Amino acid sequence: MSSRAQQPSQIWDAALGELQLQVDRTAFETWFKKTDGVALNDGEFVVGTETAFISEMLTKRMSQIVERAVGHVLGEPTSVRFQVLAHADNPSNGQSDDGQPSNADDTSAAGYGDDSQAVPVANATPSNLTTAPFARAPSLNARYTFDRFVVGKSNELAHAAARAVAENPGDAYNPLMLYSEVGLGKTHLMHAIGHQALGKGIDVRYTTAEDFTNEYIRAIHAGTTEEFRLRYRSAGMLLLDDIQFLIGKEQTQEGFFHTFNSLYMSNVQIVITSDRPAHSLKILSERISSRLSSGLSADIQPPDYETRMAILIAKSRQLSVEVSGEVLELLGARIYSNIRELEGSLNRVVAYSDLMQRPLDVELARQIIADTQEANKRRQPSEREVIDAVSKHFGVDTDTLRGPKRDKKTALARQVAMYILREDADMGATAIARALGRKDHSTVLHGCKTIEREQNINSNLRRSILEVRESLAAA
Ligand code: ADP
Ligand code: MG
User: Fold this and answer.
1) What is the mean pLDDT of residues 187-216?
2) CA atoms within 13 A on the CB side of 467
3) Would you call 89 helix, strand, or coil by DSSP?
4) Ligand that lies nearest to the alpha carbon of residue 245, given by its number in the listed order
5) Structure pTM?
6) Which residues contact 131 (CB under 8 A, 6 or more apart)?
């Protein structure tokens, strides 16, 4: 939208605002002081830095939180690259990944003080393995605490399980597996467990399955798999995020299984998250999946309206801005399937109002929601295309869809067609009624409402809608 022609430097300013809350002051001053937003191309945001060394350190230590912050501002996942600003190039520091471990350590000591929890630790690269075997502070996000986790029907089981595990690690449920679609709070709960365990002096190891894999592969190349194992085996708690990443990586699975097993045998608490249910992780080696099923698997569903509102209210308090109930209600009603997006939409409304000096009102919120949905939207499909795609997906022919039959399958397919025609083909209820051979537009309104409500709680339905939309996008 035109009022949103943001400059990279404005985007970066908004992201810095968020980063400032997450990184302690010294680190912020050290790493972010003379940075600037340089460019945004195709989902990649480029940040300019003063020296190659700073670029390198930011890449190693901060890319995760920086990507998250920029993603929040832009409202979509964005990758971030750090690059030395042309005028400030400083060739005295090598850019190679294996560069100067001692240098890195000095700076990190100066830069992080003891409040380093908000800062992802550097990956253990072969070059710094010897000097820093495993950074002690795990990369837990300081904001992901139990205090800040809003509990509702959709997540109360997972929350209770996480609490139990945090209170009695190794005792309550081992392993604990948290499962949900993206953006629903798995990582948040996992970090909350980690914070509480750290508070008890437990040696917590947090890693994503992706980092684990990279680390393991590096260890294999460097011939240091023994150190690698020892490092993990001395853990007092293991948090492994996004285990689905291990699917298809047999060698890493093997490494993980051994680590897992020895920890499990010594009653060390293990927590795992996954974006798919335990049973579909069967593709992991049999040994891992049977281990997983010996613990507790708790899933998180998309939040209902009440929970969404509670989350928005909590987040706006955290941002210390006054957001009207009307604006919150609008966001809560329109963004329902992903808490990250819900949060992102609020951040964006606040950031734009600030950047553009516009009142934080319903009009702005509408514009931003429309814009986000616009960005997600592909070409508008025609009436015909929607009906054909739905008919194909549900195996109900188009005449039946338009006819009088009302069995469950036909009725569902028809309602999905109504919903997609309204949402994606921008048709009104009367036109939709006509297209589907219904007499009355109130049938259409009812159908759309049903789907809207159902998809909040029914993941099969959500998947169906997604698949129909994908087939329309591919058409
Ligand atoms: P996942 O790991 O399932 O993809 P995250 O844990 O990263 O999701 O959550 C996405 C965002 O939503 C995070 O910023 C997180 O703090 C927030 N969030 C998720 N669930 C809740 C909740 N119940 N209360 C408050 N914030 C939440
Ligand atoms: Mg996650």
Assistant:
1) 93
2) 12
3) coil
4) 2
5) 0.58
6) 101, 102, 105
